[in-house]
Amino acid sequence: MSDPVIRCENLGKHYTLRHAGVRPGYRTLREDLLHLPLRLLAAWRGGGREEEFWALRNVSFEVRSGEVLGIIGRNGAGKSTLLKILSRITAPSEGGVDLSGRVGSLLEVGTGFHPELTGRENIYLSGAMLGMRRHEVRTHFDEIVAFAEVEQFLDTPCKHYSSGMYTRLGFAVAAHLRTDILLVDEVLAVGDAEFQKRCLGKMEELSRNGRTVVIISHNLGIVQALCSRCLVLKEGRISHQAAATAAVQFYLAQGAISEETNVFRLPSSTDPRQAVIKRIEVSNWDATPNMLSAGPLQLVVDCALAAGHKGASLLLGVYDMLGNRVLFLDSTVIAGFSFAGHGNTQRVTIRLSRDFALRPGSYALNAALLVGGRIEHHIQNACRLEIAPGSFFETGRAPDSPVYVRQEWNVSTSA
Amino acid sequence: MTVVSPPPLVRIRPARGWLGLRLGELWEYRDVLVMLATRDIKLRYKQTALGIVWVVLQPLVAGLIFTVIFGRFAGLPSGGHPYVLFVFAGLLGWNLFAGILQRAGNSLVAESKLISKVYFPRLLIPCAAAAAALVDFAVSLGVMAVLLTWHGVWPGWWLALLPAVTLLTLMLAVGISLWISALNVRYRDFMYALPFLIQVWMYATPVVYGLELIPERWRALFSLNPLVGIIEGNRAALLGGGDAVLSLLLIPALATTLALATGAWFFQRVERDFADNL
Question: C or N: which end of chain B has fewer Cβ atoms within 10 Å?
Answer without folding.
Answer: N
